[in-house]
Design brief:
The chain is α/β, with parallel strands linked by helices. It has two domains: 218 residues, 3-Layer(aba) Sandwich (Aspartate Aminotransferase, domain 2); 128 residues, Aspartate Aminotransferase, domain 1 (Alpha-Beta Complex), CATH 3.90.1150.10. It is built from 16 helices and 14 strands. The strands form three sheets. Strands 3-9-8-7-6-4-5 form a seven-stranded mixed β-sheet, sandwiched between helices. A five-stranded mixed β-sheet has the order 10-11-14-13-12, with helices on one face. Helix 5 crosses helix 10. The longest helix has 20 residues. The radius of gyration is 22 Å and the shape is globular.
Length: 405
């Protein structure tokens, strides 16, 4: 098990990417800068699907401009599939947190990834180089060629050799779902050369790492997870440069994979507490990882160097019995909520991945994935201890007593 060792600021990781304001400040204020001038304190929710205008010539000119290059519409909105003010606030805020020029929001994380693939395919760049493990549905989307993409799977050291003239994207997830494996993002970006690097940053969030500062051109989030943070909203977002954002907006308009305004409102609200939630849950997760690492019922613990609220562990016994045995922890797919969730990747999140590929990526049949929430650590440990069953060794008990647990 690797515990966090990287440089920290105020006890939490920094990656050298400069910010005009502190991350916690941006989380609270980004996307809301005009509220005082509007006479508002809370961001407004705009549910309109269409917007009236008597200037049809002007609207025609603006639509022509959007069709030409995908730039955000100047002036008032036209139609919800072209853009929504509430969603735009969330996009602005997320771009600020990730340190990118722009961000484009979608109906789900998979819709966001699909848009990236379609945008690259449209340029004739259908080949993708990817590193396993990825989220199971991301793996399936690439491997099945459902959008016409062709994928070459490799390890980080093999990225440069896997590139072809028609390679349009390199994709990694770090920490990866579900093993929490990490890659050196700066080294990977260097290996990509001129090919855009997409980093799935769902597990880390911009609180723990900002891939754009290490050379990634696209940063993907399943916003359903930590960005929303309460298990009540679904969405996806890609933070990127404005050139890439323009292509993604055109794909979003054409496919209709738009984020609902209410989802945009909830995601913007979720961002305001993102640093507090991630940091608090990370402290608890690190403690649970330490306890699991010395428990004889646990074969192996995976916990990333950068920290975070995700813990993966392999048990000696039956993982399904652990799932059936929890009472406080919620046995459910997904992650990043204020309550703690546990699931068996081989049965759910990565079931769609071929068994040989799954095992090759380190996703064993005895692996469990724990998304740690904001509950008291002792209550969570009591629940895990009961679900694991059996007897702990006397040595493990003595170690816990010596550590004051």
């Amino acid at each position: 098990m690797n515990l966090p060792t990287q440089d920290t600021q105020d006890g939490f990781p920094v990656d050298g990417l400069p910010a005009r304001r502190g991350l916690a400040t941006e989380a609270v204020h980004a996307g809301r800068e005009d509220l005082v001038a509007l006479g508002l304190h809370a961001p407004p929710l705009d549910l309109s699907t269409t917007y009236p205008s008597h200037d049809s010539r002007g609207e025609a000119a603006r639509l022509d401009a959007f069709a030409a290059d995908g730039a955000e519409l100047a002036g008032p909105p036209v139609y919800a599939r072209l853009g929504n003010p509430t969603v735009a606030r969330f996009e602005t805020a997320l771009a600020r947190l990730e340190g990118t020029e722009s961000a484009v929001a979608f109906a789900s994380g998979m819709a966001a990834l699909s848009a990236v693939l379609l945008a690259r395919n449209a340029l004739g760049l259908r080949h993708v180089v990817a590193v396993r493990p990825l989220y199971g549905c991301s793996d399936h989307l690439l491997n099945a060629g459902l959008l016409g993409s062709e994928v070459t799977w490799t390890d980080p050291a093999g990225i440069a050799d896997a590139l072809r003239p028609d390679t349009g994207l390199v994709m990694v997830e770090s920490p990866a779902n579900p093993t929490l494996a990490e890659v050196d993002l700066r080294a990977v970006a260097h290996a990509c050369g001129s090919v855009p690097l997409l980093v799935d940053n769902t597990f880390a969030t911009p609180v723990l790492q900002r891939p754009a500062g290490h050379g990634a051109r696209l940063v993907l989030h399943s916003a359903t997870k930590y960005l929303g943070g309460h298990g009540d909203v679904m969405g996806g977002v890609v933070a990127c440069d404005e050139e890439m954002a323009r292509r993604l907006r055109q794909v979003r308009f054409a496919t209709g994979a738009v984020l609902h305004p209410l989802a945009g409102y909830l995601l913007l609200r979720g961002l305001s507490t993102l640093p507090v939630r991630v940091r608090a849950a990370s402290v608890t997760a690190a403690e649970l990882a330490r306890r699991l690492a010395v428990d004889p019922r646990v074969a192996r613990v995976h916990y990333p160097r950068i920290g975070g609220a995700m813990v993966a562990f392999e048990v000696h016994g039956d993982p399904h019995s652990v799932i059936a045995g929890v009472r406080l922890i919620t046995p459910a797919v997904s992650l990043g909520s204020v309550d703690t969730l546990i699931q068996h990747p081989a049965s759910i999140s990565h079931r769609i991945v071929d068994e040989t590929d799954r095992h090759g990526a380190g996703v064993s049949d005895r692996l469990l994935r724990l998304s740690v929430g904001l509950e008291d650590v002792e209550d969570l440990w009591t629940d895990l201890d009961g679900a694991l069953g059996g007897e702990r060794t006397e040595g493990a008990r003595r170690k816990e007593m010596a550590e004051g647990r």
